[in-house]
Amino acid sequence: RRCLNRIKKTQHLNAYISVTEDLALKQAQEAETRLLQGAPKGPLDGIPFAVKDNFCTKNIRTTCASRMLRDYTPTYNATVVQKLLDQGAVLMGKTNMDEFAMGSGSTDGAFGPVRNPWTYAAPYREQTGAAQDTDWVITGGSSGGSAAAVASLTSYLALGSDTGGSTRNPGALCGVVALKPTYGLLSRHGLIPLVNSMDVPGILTRTVNDAATVLGILQGLDIRDSTTIAAPSPVTELPEDFDVKNICVGIPKEYHAPSLSEETLAQWSHVADMFERAGARVEQVSLPHTQYSIVCYSVLCRAEVASNMARFDGLEYGHCSEVDRSTEAMYAATRHEGFNDVVRGRILSGNYFLLKQNYEHYFVKAQKVRRLIANDFMHVFRSGVDVLLTPATLTDAARYSDFTREDNRTRSAQEDVFTQPVNLAGLPAVCVPTALSRRGLPIGLQLIGPALQDKKLLSVAHWIE
Ligand code: GLN
């Protein structure tokens, strides 16, 4: 009830697209009975959680923040949602996002932008004297609603999706813990796809230990997703006495991006020094193909988007235009009315990259570059590096008015420079909040680990938390 009340009090954040109040109260009551009988289902019994609106939820509308799916109600739960429900966790609602998870701001959904809860907290107000109605800052995205839900204490955990940084970016900008697990460790069944070869369900929580608990429950093989892999070991409590003395922390030199803010750079050095003082080996390493990752991602993302979005034709799911001159005209009108310009732009360019005469030059070449980027990480980890420490975002959260300025539009792709390569390589990464900026907004750092070393990664993250 307290969480539901907070959802009402924080409606101005626009974090939720649907609030499942009746269901939540019923589930909470059932959980309470179990707890009073001393028979909880597990550590998440009765814990409120929120789900990004691109995970299918049975009998609960799932919109992807798009006019196309405004009234779409799935008949089944995504595997990760079902696993949380099976544990007795209480679904509070579906969270706001960028349309079809395309974006880095949570400013591009059909239900309006999400506001960062830190806008309304004392540090930001005192430091900037900002007017809350006009000077509010973005959450980052595309899982901004999920990050805002955890940061504003309306849920204890939230599911996001992460294709190029969409869980870690808003996690860092909203000051919560954000985990992108190894590709395949969590089932994508029921997650409406953006880029199948990169999508992973992401976990947003208040603490690293909470993220580990949720990972332990969600990971593992799913017969409904052929890309899932068996979990290497059960994730249980993280060690409290994890010793960083014998670990090697790599600092990728290519991540000194020109537009990295001084404050974030200072935080990055500060935490690297912390590791060094505690006896870890801190080494500069090189990931030479980083510079190609944004273009490589753009080509592969758009190509997969073009084929994924073909299913939205006005017949099978969602919106159907009233234009009925011909089948082609109906398709075209449905897609024009249903998708925003970001989605339409990606479909068009994706189809261009996939044209017979362009396929080799763009798509096949991008796949080769993807392999080079993944190999960079592999070489570094093989050389004895345990984790990489990097910034999560270039700066703290931008003001909405600055982020959406026309001349800034193309910058949006640059926002993901530190997170995207990780998806191209399928590796686990976690962002943890480490400081507040001078403007009173969270700064987070990212740790990246070798494939399937999610638990060790979280143990290191727990150490800096
Ligand atoms: N910002 C990237 C994009 O727009 C990544 C999005 C994501 O991770 N879902 O594609």
From TrEMBL:
The Swiss-Prot or TrEMBL record describes its family as follows: Belongs to the amidase family. GatA subfamily.
EC annotation from Swiss-Prot or TrEMBL: 6.3.5.7
What InterPro entries does the entry give?
Amidase, Amidase_dom, AS_sf, GatA
Pfam families found in the cross-reference section: Amidase
Q: Which reaction does it catalyse?
A: L-glutamyl-tRNA(Gln) + L-glutamine + ATP + H2O = L-glutaminyl-tRNA(Gln) + L-glutamate + ADP + phosphate + H(+)
> Which species is this record about?
Channa striata
- A GO molecular function held by the record: glutaminyl-tRNA synthase (glutamine-hydrolyzing) activity
Recite the UniProt keywords alphabetically. ATP-binding, Ligase, Mitochondrion, Nucleotide-binding, Protein biosynthesis
Q: Catalytic residues?
A: K52, S142, S166
GO CC annotation? glutamyl-tRNA(Gln) amidotransferase complex; mitochondrion
The UniProt function text for this chain reads:
Allows the formation of correctly charged Gln-tRNA(Gln) through the transamidation of misacylated Glu-tRNA(Gln) in the mitochondria. The reaction takes place in the presence of glutamine and ATP through an activated gamma-phospho-Glu-tRNA(Gln).
Where, per UniProt, does this protein localize? Mitochondrion
Q: Which GO terms describe its biological process?
A: glutaminyl-tRNAGln biosynthesis via transamidation; mitochondrial translation
- Give the protein name, as stated in the record: Glutamyl-tRNA(Gln) amidotransferase subunit A, mitochondrial
Q: Which domain of life is it from?
A: Eukaryota
